[in-house]
Amino acid sequence: MIISFSVVRELMKRFDEDEVFDLSAELAYFFLLSLFPFLLFLLTFLSYLPIPHEDVIAFLSQYAPSETVHLIETNMRQLMELQSGKWLSFSVLATVWAASNGMSAIIRALNRAYDVKETRSFLVARGISILLTFAMIFVIIVALVFPVFGKMIGTFLFSAFGLSGVFLRIWETIRWFVSFIILFFVFSVLYVFAPSKYVRFRDVWSGSLFATVGWMVVSLAFSYYVNQFGNYSAMYGSLGGIIALMVWFYLSGMMIVLGGELNAIFCCKKEGKMRIR
């Protein structure tokens, strides 16, 4: 579907009507609550794989500001001192509980976008939130692990078959393209199953594409701004890293909400049920 001027205008109107700024702030809060339990789970899980935590930091540094990466790296080192198998179950429970609250907030945001009320029971809605949380945790781990294993596979093929350096460059592009596809799939699943409304996969690709590209562009742009111009530590002191992290989460939440709003706009246009103002 083509994003026309009327769609852009409708999207801008929904900014205020659906309180996109407030919803993005709510998502940022829950993302922050779930981050460190997730890091504990991730470190415990990766301890069973031949992947050092530096590879995770290297992956995050491509999108997150340097202050945020430093904050996450510092906490990861502290969590590594606590790392043991017994923490795996605890970290899973803590991550799922904290992240499912954020998922519930996304469900409310998408229901508002589609102008529908939550008709599912509390247990069903919470169950969907938990299932989507598990799905996102799994996909995030795959997105983090694949670039590392992809690099190992590419290096092995390069040395084993004597391939040229062009192969490594092409392989590098393919690896990150797969990460893009994984992120696109995550948003698609989220936009299909989260709303209290029947939505098909073919009806959410535009919002998923917008959210995927938007998140990557916004993350890279914000990272460049913070690294080059925005010294949060100078203004907020030791809280600079947390403030930068919250702003990054805020922008990420906004991209998720806007992707859902875009899907809702196309759905309303298709059904001929545009909002009455």
Automatic annotation (TrEMBL):
The record, for InterPro entries, names: Virul_fac_BrkB
* The keyword Hydrolase is assigned to this record: no
- Indicate how the chain sits in the lipid bilayer: Multi-pass membrane protein
Regions that span the bilayer: 27-49, 87-110, 122-146, 153-170, 176-194, 206-226, 238-268
Q: Where in the cell is it found?
A: Cell membrane
Q: Which key words tag this protein in UniProt?
A: Cell membrane, Membrane, Transmembrane, Transmembrane helix
Can you name this protein? YihY family inner membrane protein
Natural source organism: Anoxybacillus thermarum
